[in-house]
Write a structure and sequence with these properties.
alpha/beta; eight-stranded mixed barrel; elongated
Length: about 600
């Protein structure tokens, strides 16, 4: 059985593929009946059928030896074939725990054998099946013949629906035909090395813009014209496939990189010369990507994916043409996987956690608080750096539930420390989108009250950019938090806008000088000048200043002499788990 998480998605796509073929509830067809009669005759069984698995029924496109056109899908053997996408043989239904009380068994059927009717995209439409009123067995050779008959049925379906192989807009063979051709070529020349060249005339993200600006027929005309232009360049011996709107693929024999790029650029120049393309030069930028393939080893879907990946990389680099990079592709796939898996991480109990880096008051050398930092232990990848996964989710709908998780976890930890008599403040990072939530301030204050914490136990950190780009409504929320006693810190100070006019109005009490400035002050006069200027400006405006990234005693002493209020960094401590921080605090006598 397919994975439970994949099954609903597969079933929905399978039903869509079935209905797109317009086979259900259609009149009998001699071309299908011929195959069922042949099956009944060869296997010596009274019943044979081409059975299509709908959402709740088995509908017979063709049948021999049975009067009714459909039966319920529940406990129908053909339904299992559709679910499992493999041959099913039941020697005796009455001896089967699954089917002994089925409608088939109750109607006198004892034997069943069915082979899947599978599309090129891997969706099983139903089964080519034979049935008998007596228990029996069939040989491996007979199973193979039943599979051949299922393939004959699918060939007939595809013949009746040529649009499944031909793109109606350009008249070119489509991706289904490409997949079939690759399989045929693999049988003739297994292991042969080739390249797939993916030509994308139009970036898919620009389609809606062009439809609006140029009209919907423009893109259609562009696709048809591009197809003709590419066919002229490639010649009659080279088959061109249309695999998407303004997207084309053709195959070439193995050759060196220079020859591939030269051929790709020649195709691009042909497209750039099209008169229709010149009508929208700002929006239309054709690119060509090339990816290697080995016949019989690489699946058609993978061939298209890697070739399109090379095409997208060429677009990003503005090179016009490019070769597939396994490293870049792996990076894109990893980013996609991390983003996809992060929602599950939010709901898991053992993936996300907070660690805490101490902040030291320089005038007393005491630890007054910590910054809560997020960590992710991926179930298969292990520890994933926040620098990698946070940018993937911070501007997506996942940012809000992530901040909610961080706030809940940090407040729970702060509550535990305060119950132990440890007056430790916890600083939390929040994103710009959180300030757009109308009830953000009130929800945060409510959680603090429920934990019986003083407002001073929590500090919020936001970047300069996040603060600057928010409207007045967001700043009113910050004002509400400040009135309640919550401190607001400007994180990564010095890397954003950092203007005096801006700082004099911002609703914050703390600035945290970014580590990029701190790390150079031991031996770089320019860095010392910048830090001194920022400290002086922040002091004069009444901000409390925290230096991030302190790693040497020399830096610590220098900041202390300048009157910097707090510091955090590896010199004092790396980020610690909650229990480890408690032990660090006790041993450090802070």
């Amino acid at each position: 059985m397919r994975d439970d998480l994949q099954q609903p998605h597969y079933e929905q796509a399978r039903l869509y593929a079935l209905r797109q073929l317009n086979l259900l509830d259609t009149p009998p067809s001699e071309s299908f009946d011929r195959i069922t009669r042949l099956a009944s005759k060869f296997f010596g069984m009274p019943i044979a059928a081409v059975s299509l698995t709908d959402a709740d029924r088995q509908w017979f496109k063709s049948r021999v030896g049975v009067e009714h056109r459909e039966i319920p899908r529940l406990k129908a053997c053909c339904g299992e074939v559709a679910d499992e996408s493999k041959v099913l043989v039941v020697p005796d239904l009455l001896q089967s725990p699954t089917y002994r009380d089925s409608l088939l068994a109750e109607s006198g059927i004892r034997f069943y054998a069915g082979a899947p009717l599978q599309t090129q995209d891997g969706y099983t439409l139903g089964a080519m099946c034979v049935l008998d009123t007596q228990p029996r067995e069939i040989s491996k050779e007979e199973v193979a013949l039943l599979q051949d008959m299922a393939a004959m049925v699918m060939a007939q379906i595809e013949l009746q629906h040529a649009f499944g192989r031909i793109d109606p807009l350009t008249g070119l063979p489509n991706r289904s035909q490409l997949a079939e051709d690759l399989e045929d070529m693999a049988r003739d020349a297994p292991g042969r090395q080739q390249y797939a060249l993916f030509t994308e005339v139009l970036d898919s993200s620009q389609v809606s813009t062009l439809n609006r600006v140029m009209g919907p027929t423009y893109v259609d005309d562009l696709s048809r014209l591009a197809a003709r232009g590419l066919e002229e360049v490639l010649g009659k011996d080279q088959r061109l496939y249309s695999v998407g709107l303004c997207q084309f693929v053709h195959l070439v024999d193995d050759r060196n990189d220079d020859e591939l790029i030269e051929g790709a650029l020649r195709l691009r120049e042909t497209l750039l010369s099209l008169e229709l393309l010149r009508e929208a030069p700002i929006l239309v930028h054709p690119v060509v990507g090339a990816a290697p393939l080995c016949l019989g080893q690489d699946k058609p879907a993978d061939v298209l994916r890697t070739a399109h990946s090379a095409c997208q990389d060429a677009r990003l680099t503005e090179a016009g043409a490019g070769l597939y990079s396994q490293a870049l592709d792996a990076s894109h796939r990893r980013r996609f996987m991390l983003h996809s898996d992060f929602r599950a991480a939010l709901n898991a109990s053992d993936q996300l956690r907070l660690v805490y880096q101490p902040r030291i008051e320089l005038s007393t050398n005491r630890c007054l608080g910590v910054e809560a930092l997020l960590r992710w232990r991926h179930p298969t990848l292990g520890e994933v750096s926040p620098a990698e996964f946070i940018p993937l989710v911070e501007n997506t709908p996942l940012a809000r539930p992530l901040t909610a998780w961080v706030i809940y976890s940090a407040i729970a930890q702060a509550e535990s420390w305060h119950r132990q008599g440890l007056a430790i403040g916890v600083s939390l990072n929040v994103s710009a989108c959180n300030l757009e939530e109308a009830d953000f301030a009130e929800r945060l204050l409510s959680q603090i009250r429920q934990a019986d914490l003083p407002a001073s136990a929590i500090e919020l950190e936001l970047t300069e950019t996040a603060l600057f780009e928010q409207g007045r409504g967001a700043w009113q929320q910050l004002d509400r938090l400040i009135e309640a006693g919550i401190r607001i810190a400007i994180d990564d100070f010095g890397t954003g806008y950092s203007s005096l006019a801006y700082l004099q109005d911002i609703p914050a009490q703390v600035v945290k000088i970014d580590r990029s400035f701190i790390k150079g002050i031991d031996d770089m006069p320019r860095s010392r000048t910048l830090v001194e200027s920022m400290l002086s400006m922040a002091h004069n405006l009444g901000y409390r200043v925290v230096a991030e990234g302190v790693e040497t005693q020399q830096t610590y002493d220098y900041l202390q002499a300048l009157g910097c209020h707090e510091a955090q960094g590896f010199l004092m401590s790396r980020p610690l788990e909650g229990g480890d921080f408690e032990r660090w605090l006790a041993s450090s006598n802070h």
